[in-house]
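Feature request, filed as a ticket because there's no other form

It would be nice if the structure record came with a short human-readable summary line next to the tokens. Right now we just get the raw output. Example of a typical job, pasted below so the devs can see what we mean:
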Amino acid sequence: MDDREIRAAMHAAFTEQYGSDEGTVMFFAPGRVNLIGEHTDYNGGHVFPCALTRGTYALVRQREDRTIRYYSLNQKTSGFITKELDQITAYNADDQWTNYPNAAVYAFEKHGHHIKTGYDAVIAGNIPVGSGLSSSASLLVLTGSVLRAFNQLDDVTNQELALLARFAEQKYIGLNCGIMDQFAIAMGKKDHAIFLDTADLSYKYVPVVLDDASLIIMNTNKPRELQESKYNDRVQECTQALHDLQKVCNITSLGELSSVQFEELKDAITDETCRKRAKHAVYENERTLLAAEALQHGELEEFGKLMNASHVSLRDDYEVSGIELDTLAETAWTVPGVIGARMTGAGFGGCGVALVRNDAVETFLHTVQKAYVDTVGYEASFFRAEIADGPIVIDEAA
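Raw output as currently delivered:
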């Protein structure tokens, strides 16, 4: 569904669930795709994401009591879920998907931003859950936008929204994530990618000018739950590698090392697996620096080569791709007119992204889909990425 269809369906659902949609406000937060710089954000490196026009919507009406009521068009089997603000103290499996908006409430309260009243909400989105396009971070930032607006917390900046969303995911959901997803969503800018140093949160916007090419999202349609995957294991393996390196050099993160320095010091990492993980983190950070510079200068072919090298590293050193993502990327590499292709996001399923010449898109879609079905047994999904601003309140009268 497009934007207007989603919003119309949400109003119909709100009226059905709550009796009337009078007094409602529509909010939107984007999803994100990372162009390059994977698994570097929790290693003090650089990332290069952009926000998407696809994302998550909330149609919300403030209440006078301390009750929150949720209904999701994407999770209809969950039905109607109710939560009291004073009960939001810890992750509860019975709360199902609403643990994410509850986590945002928890983060606000823990940081001294008092939430005065509850609300009624209908949620809907057009980014697949568990696809690697940050549906969870989108929902967290979206909820933060609602809480900010309804509680007159105008001093909470978009950058603080990102930090609150990361706190929510780490402390309430239990995922040891970095800052990239939340920052890209909260700080998105139309037609720009964000070159972010995750060590100090310094950033700059880089125009995404692709001329006769397009970014195509490739969805494996294999969803995953990161907290149930090996994501946290990768974080721990990098932490162990860092501890070993700190015995021989004065660093606080893997992102401080160049590839030359890493090769000189890598034998200090005693475990071979941890050494491979650290190698990816260091080399991927270097690739991200080069990629941002290449895109800024319109060097798309160089950018594409770095995308390809990123996937190889994620496949071989970080081991987070799998047959689905490998099939998408490796098949894309064989198609004339494909400038670059790689998995994006945490991996373990989810999505890839390809940079494709416009006159090659049709051949690319046919070739990659056929190879994917032949190898995996079901279809992938594809859509053109359009780059959006961060969270907004939608003026439905406009």
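Something like this underneath would help us a lot:
DSSP finds eleven helices and 13 strands in the chain.
Residues 71 and 80 are 5 Å apart (CA to CA).
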